[in-house]
Design goal:
One of its GO terms (molecular function) is N6-(1,2-dicarboxyethyl)AMP AMP-lyase (fumarate-forming) activity. The chain is mainly alpha-helical. The chain has 20 helices and 4 strands. The strands form 2 sheets. Strands 1-2 form a two-stranded antiparallel ribbon. Helix 7 packs antiparallel against helix 8.
Length: about 475
């Protein structure tokens, strides 16, 4: 509908797969699966629950009567109770034992963790694929010299591939962080109203071992080995901060990459993909704007700022909990994932189609390299019998003259011509040009690229080889 606001993350940017993960349908079906897992575990541990009741619950696990749930929520002002009633109207025999001994956070928190975990797996897949395409690019161009920049001023040479492998390294660090968070993702489990498991102690007549086993059984049925050792009414909200920190870290890396591409596109050295029918400007038909990289930066800024939400939410959970987390988490967590998903779709698309303009890169090198190579020229001239101090002063003067020609008069850099015309250097123009071979000025950059790939990237690609089947799509 066009007459009601819809978040652009949903309508324009995020993938269908990520949107489905955070849909109401996914969320409420997980609630029902959790209620079934709870009933099964309680039955296995001796509570008076029948197979017939459990089978009835399973029959309606995927068939949610949403209209009933909506009507009940209007009456009760409580979403979990509304869905308990709706489930009970379908599974009538199971109605007395649905949600037995549990608090609302049994379904809400456990479901949220499961959704976030599945979302992290999708993020991981896209992150690994970005690492793959970008490292391929880095290997392809590992030997190609390019002008380095510090403070966006010309500096020593590097290579196109080395610069790209620095972007890869950022993503690898993000992947390591993401893996850490996933390895430390636990369910809330079955902890009761304030996390003491008191209601379940009552159900099992004070049998602590059965209560502990109930927690383990439910986790296992939901695909997890562990629950948080301690909870209040909710799982520790610090976990949300860790998860969104990963997403913010990915956003930061993506921002750096996209910002660099924007600068390089300004220099006409590297461009993001630009389709034949794409329009760069409504007014200036000739323009090729770095639209996708700009969008990465825009979305990344949103994710990076959003990290403030779980920070504040976790810090103000009074004692065993307060409900001011709920409305905030409904927005901040899904939208952080949707935005990061969008960023990685764009990142992969841009990295897969980067266009390198070698002649322009060479031109920029030739404009600056003579200044950078003066020490090498000086040393060679001294070897041929020149006086180091006299030659140093001459190079200084020639460099000033050449710099003035470039900056004040817009001429080409003629430093090499000035030096070769001075007989005291005893160097021909051809000999100076040989000294100016750009590949002599990139240090170990090509080796660094290959070594980093072999030691860090290759093991990642082997570990996640089954995930390397992602094709990015940009909707708009």
């Amino acid at each position: 509908m066009n007459d009601i606001y819809e978040t652009p993350l949903n309508s324009r940017y995020a993938s269908d797969e990520m949107k489905r993960l955070f849909s109401n349908d996914t969320r409420f079906k997980l609630w029902r699966k959790l209620w079934i897992a709870l009933a099964e575990a309680q039955k296995e541990l001796g509570l008076d629950i029948t197979d017939e009741q459990i089978e009835e619950m399973k029959r309606y696990a995927e068939d949610i009567n949403y209209e009933v749930a909506r009507q009940k929520e209007k009456e009760l002002r409580h979403d979990v109770m509304a869905h308990i009633h709706a489930f009970g109207e379908q599974a009538k025999k199971a109605r007395p034992i649905i949600h037995l001994g549990a608090t609302s956070c049994f379904v809400t928190d456990n479901a949220d963790i499961i959704i976030m975990y599945e979302a992290l797996k999708l993020i991981r897949k896209k992150l690994v694929n970005c690492i793959k395409v970008l490292s391929d690019f880095a290997l392809k161009y590992k030997d190609m010299p390019t002008l380095g920049f510090t403070h966006f001023q010309p500096a020593q040479l590097t290579t196109v591939g080395k610069r790209a492998m620095l972007w890869v390294q950022d993503l690898v660090m993000d992947l390591e962080f993401l893996e850490y968070v996933m390895e430390h993702t636990y369910l809330r489990g079955v902890k009761g109203t304030t996390g003491t498991q008191a209601s379940f102690m009552a159900l099992f007549d004070g049998n602590e071992e059965k209560v502990k086993m109930l927690d383990k059984l439910v986790c296992k049925k939901m695909g997890f080995e562990k629950s948080f050792p301690l909870t209040s009414q909710t799982y520790p909200r610090k976990y949300d901060f860790l998860v969104l920190s990963v997403l913010a870290s990915i956003a930061q890396s993506s921002y750096k990459f996209a910002n660099d591409i924007r600068l390089l596109q300004h220099l006409k050295e590297i461009e993001e993909p630009f389709e034949k029918t794409q329009v760069g400007s409504s007014a200036m038909a000739y323009k090729r704007n770095p639209m996708r990289s700009e969008r990465i930066c825009a979305l990344a800024r949103y994710v990076m700022v959003n990290i403030q939400n779980p920070l504040f939410t976790a810090s103000v959970q009074w004692l065993e909990r307060t409900l001011d987390d709920s409305a905030n988490r409904r927005i901040s967590i899904p939208e952080a994932f949707l935005a990061t998903d969008s960023i990685l779709n764009l990142y992969h698309n841009v990295a897969s189609g980067l266009v390198v303009y070698e002649r322009m890169i060479e031109r920029h090198i030739q404009q600056e390299l003579p200044f950078m190579a003066t020490e090498n020229i000086l040393m060679e001239a001294v070897k041929r019998g020149g006086d180091r101090q006299d030659l140093h002063e001459k190079i200084r003067k020639y460099s000033m003259e050449a710099g003035r020609n470039v900056k004040e008069f817009g001429k080409e850099n003629n430093l090499i011509e000035l030096i070769s015309n001075d007989p005291s250097f005893k160097l021909s123009k051809e000999e100076i040009q040989a000294i100016l071979d750009p590949k002599k000025f990139v240090g170990r950059a090509p080796s660094q690229v290959q070594e980093y790939y072999n030691e860090y990237v290759k093991p990642i690609l082997e570990k996640y080889k089954d995930d390397l089947n992602f094709e990015s799509q940009v909707n708009i």
